[in-house]
Amino acid sequence: FAVKTKFDEDRWIKAAEVRAGNPSVVHHILIFIKYPKGHEKEEPDFEGGLDGYFLSMVPGESPSVYEDGFGKLLPAGSVLVFQVHYTPNGRVEKDRSKIGLVFADKPVKKEVITRGIYNTDIKIPAHAENHLETAKFEFKDDSYLTQMLPHMHLRGKSFTYTAKYPDGSEEILLSVPQWDFNWQNGYRLAEPKFMPKGTKILCEAVYDNSENNPANPNPDKRIRFGEQTWDEMLIGYIDYYLADQDLTMADSGE
Hints:
Elements: E1 2-4, E2 11-19, E3 26-34, E4 53-57, E5 64-65, E6 70-74, E7 79-86, E8 98-103, E9 110-111, E10 113-118, E11 123-124, E12 131-138, E13 143-151, E14 156-164, E15 170-176, E16 187-195, E17 200-207, E18 223-224, E19 235-242, H1 247-251
């Protein structure tokens, strides 16, 4: 469903939290921005990234809080599109999920950008115990990576982010060797990690669709990408900002 923000001016967000109104049926929530006319150019076009992504709520995720000088842009006239993923429980239920926003009270120098590195074409064979699927993303500008948040469902087994740099070197940025669907949290770096232009991020997700996975709803089924808990997903969220951006300079006219 869509919610009009009705702001008369652009707002910068320094903290945000999405809360499920009825956790018994709300599996997770993704929120996207539908930009007003004239602001479309503010949405970068990156390969392998979900455009317009704003916030999410998944099991175990903490609220998003940004340091002074950093924030997410919510342009005046924007519409927030809530993609709520419900899991039926056999009863008639009601839900009124919410989003809470804290506006920046100091000038914002860097815009925090969130992208989902995803693959909707995953195919997990029945009874497969270590099935690998991948997704890729490429930085088109020098950037700094600040956070990673992997997302899978009940058959998820492990998740790895690897950076492939333009000079040919590689580096594992995050390894989650024992995936837990009930505890999905963002991994914020102690210090922002420089990602040169042309750096590629490879997300590798391993799934256990075998009888040995106690959380597996049905090992006899071939599994594909889907919204329900018994389906699967491969999304590697990242937060980053552009290295050369200084919004305070733009505001001062320099």
